[in-house]
Design goal:
Number of helices of chain A: 18
Function (chain B): The transhydrogenation between NADH and NADP is coupled to respiration and ATP hydrolysis and functions as a proton pump across the membrane.
Oligomer: heterodimer
Radius of gyration of chain A: 25 Å
Transmembrane segments (chain B): 6-22, 34-53, 59-82
Strand content of chain B: under 5%
Largest sheet of chain A: 6 strands, parallel
Protein name (chain B): proton-translocating NAD(P)(+) transhydrogenase
Domain NAD(P) transhydrogenase alpha subunit C-terminal (chain B): 7-91
Number of strands of chain B: 0
Number of domains of chain B: 1
Radius of gyration of chain B: 18 Å
Main location (chain B): membrane
Order of helices and strands of chain A: HHHHHHHHHHHHEHHEHEHEHEEH
Distance between the termini of chain A: 81 Å
Distance between the termini of chain B: 57 Å
Structural class of chain A: alpha/beta
Chain lengths: 461, 93
């Protein structure tokens, strides 16, 4: 028997779902993206307000406190976070979303009302995915903020430990669904399931190294949606399923794009930490030719076109603002400046784009890898700022290199290549970069921010 | 039958999601992710039903209220931070 109120609520959910879809559609272009985000926020507000009309909701005291507290925390977190800390922020938000699903699942079990086998299965899934999302995101956050090492953490027997965890999760899941009376009467099964899912999340992310973070963040993003989706099944709530699966799908697509950009499969990214480190016995011929910032200035002053290829090192050196200053100087000098962004440059999808947007670089100056590769030979100078593996020509020309086959920006094909780098350490992948030894490459050693500032000073003089 | 009907919704939404997101340019990947994250805060709707229903018992209500708290952080934080980022994406003057 459906009451009129339920009808109103569910009809509003339909409108809400349409607005979410419309909002995501608008998010597809930079000029309409802000509006899209707003449309999606309106959809959320609508869904929340109409839910409060539900006849079953009689006690508003805790709801008011919880929403106020959550709103304040969310508001200040969003206002105060530095743009450079965005990968950490996104990880934390993923984690919080996962934890919310855990508590929804827990409350559903605790309420004990109308728990069929189907509802028990999906509730267990919500608990599991939510738990993995939460602990995985916390580990990702700790890695990104360098509270723990960013390198892959492995120990012997890790694979066996993981198999045991998975088997234990399956066993608790079985106990949950097949023996609900036992599972529900003793809270221990719930705690064990929760502990196992948290442990599994930690074990999933620990063996993944810093440069693979874009994949992990996208994947956790997807999980946070799938957890909401599973919670929707548990509560038989349509809007949770629709919104959750939209997020799940978006995360899966991003994960796929990131994996393709590294020419690796998802399982390779997730489990490569367990494999033996690839030792390459290939020797790269040639010598490294250093260049001073002063000499770089003379080349840049004469250049007609410059392509900038940023990487995680630019984020670390905080060099985006001074790069924008250099861009202005170059453009006043009638030089075309383009930025080439590799999909996995940085620590999350679109990391470089956010940093450059913060420095006021117009998105029309930013080009994707394929666009720039078509015309890279025409550029007088390619400036590689803190990027390494994403410009490694070994991916193109050295069969047997661990990154062979990965799509890279062909910086080495530009007329001149400047590599701004702290020292000669190899990139995350631990492989030498033949780019540094090419005849048209000059290495400008030192902090990228200082190097760029001194070039800008030269332009000003 | 209810389960099948819900699976239908799931299936169709996933396909819509795939279609929508495939067209998003790389420039917008970070705001897309944080915006999608805000949407995953939809859990708040489910949490509200649990937090306000006295028939479910006090314990379930407290757990539900905590879920409301967490999901609200997700919603408010997610939308605001996405808006902050998107405000920075500018065209050429």
């Amino acid at each position: 028997m459906t009451s009129n109120i339920d009808l109103v609520i569910n009809f509003t959910y339909v409108i809400s779902a349409a607005l979410f879809i419309f909002g995501l559609k608008l998010l597809g272009h930079p000029s309409s993206a802000r509006k899209g985000n707003l449309v999606s926020a309106v959809a959320m507000l609508l869904a929340i307000v109409v839910t409060l009309l539900d006849n079953n909701i009689v006690n508003f005291q805790w709801i008011a406190i919880a929403m106020l507290a959550g709103g304040v925390v969310g508001f200040f977190a969003a206002r105060l976070v530095a743009m450079t800390d965005m990968p950490e922020m996104v990880s934390l938000l993923n984690g919080v979303g996962g934890l919310a699903s855990v508590f929804v699942a827990w409350a559903t079990i605790q309420s004990g009302a109308g728990l069929t086998a189907f509802i028990l299965i999906v509730t267990f899934l919500a608990l599991l995915i939510g738990g993995v999302t939460f602990s995985g995101s916390i580990v990702a956050w700790a890695k990104l903020s360098e509270r723990i090492t960013g390198r892959a953490v492995t120990f012997s027997g890790q694979a066996i430990v993981n198999v045991i965890i998975v088997l234990a999760i399956v066993a608790t899941g079985y106990a949950f669904v097949a023996q609900p009376d036992f599972a529900l009467s003793s809270a221990e099964v719930l705690y064990v399931a929760l502990a196992l899912s948290l442990l599994f999340g930690i074990m999933l992310v620990l063996p993944i190294g810093g440069a693979d973070m874009p994949v992990v963040i996208s994947l956790l993003n997807s999980y946070s949606g799938l957890a909401a989706c599973a919670a929707g099944f548990a509560l038989q709530n349509n809007i949770l399923i629709v919104a959750g699966s939209l997020v799940g799908a978006s995360g899966i697509i991003l994960t796929n794009i990131m994996c393709k950009a590294m020419n690796r499969s998802l399982s390779n990214v997730l489990f490569s930490g367990f494999m033996a480190v690839h030792k390459s016995d290939m020797v790269i011929e040639g010598e490294v030719k250093p260049l001073s910032a002063d000499d770089a200035f003379y080349v840049l002053e004469a250049a007609q076109s410059v392509v900038v290829i940023p990487g995680y090192g630019m984020a670390v050196a905080q060099a985006q603002h001074v790069m924008k200053e250099l861009q202005i100087q170059l453009e006043e000098n009638d030089c075309e400046v383009a930025y080439a962004i590799h999909p996995v440059a940085g620590r999350m999808p679109g990391h470089m784009n956010v940093l450059l947007a913060e420095a006021d670089v117009s998105y029309e100056h930013l080009f994707e890898m394929d666009d720039i590769n078509k015309r890279i030979e025409n550029f007088d100078v390619a400036m590689v700022i803190g990027a390494n593996d994403v410009v490694n020509p070994a991916a193109r020309e050295m069969k047997g290199s661990p990154i062979y086959g990965m799509p890279v920006i062909n910086a080495d094909l530009a007329k001149n290549v400047f590599v701004l780098k702290r020292g000669m350490a190899s990139g995350f992948a631990g492989i030498d970069n033949p780019l540094f030894f090419k005849p048209n490459t000059r290495m400008i050693f030192g902090d990228a921010k200082e190097t760029l500032s001194s070039i800008v000073r030269q332009f000003n003089d | 039958m209810e389960a099948i009907y819900l699976l239908f919704i799931l299936l169709l939404s996933i396909f819509v999601g795939f279609e929508l997101i495939q067209k998003v340019p790389a420039t917008l990947h970070t705001p897309l992710m944080s915006g999608a994250n805000a949407i995953s805060g939809i859990t708040v709707v489910g949490a509200l039903a649990l937090a306000g229903d006295e028939t479910l018992g006090e314990y379930a209500m407290y757990l539900g209220a905590f879920a409301v708290f967490l999901a609200t952080i997700n919603v408010v934080g997610g939308y605001l931070v996405t808006d902050r980022m998107l405000a920075m994406f500018k065209k050429k003057q």
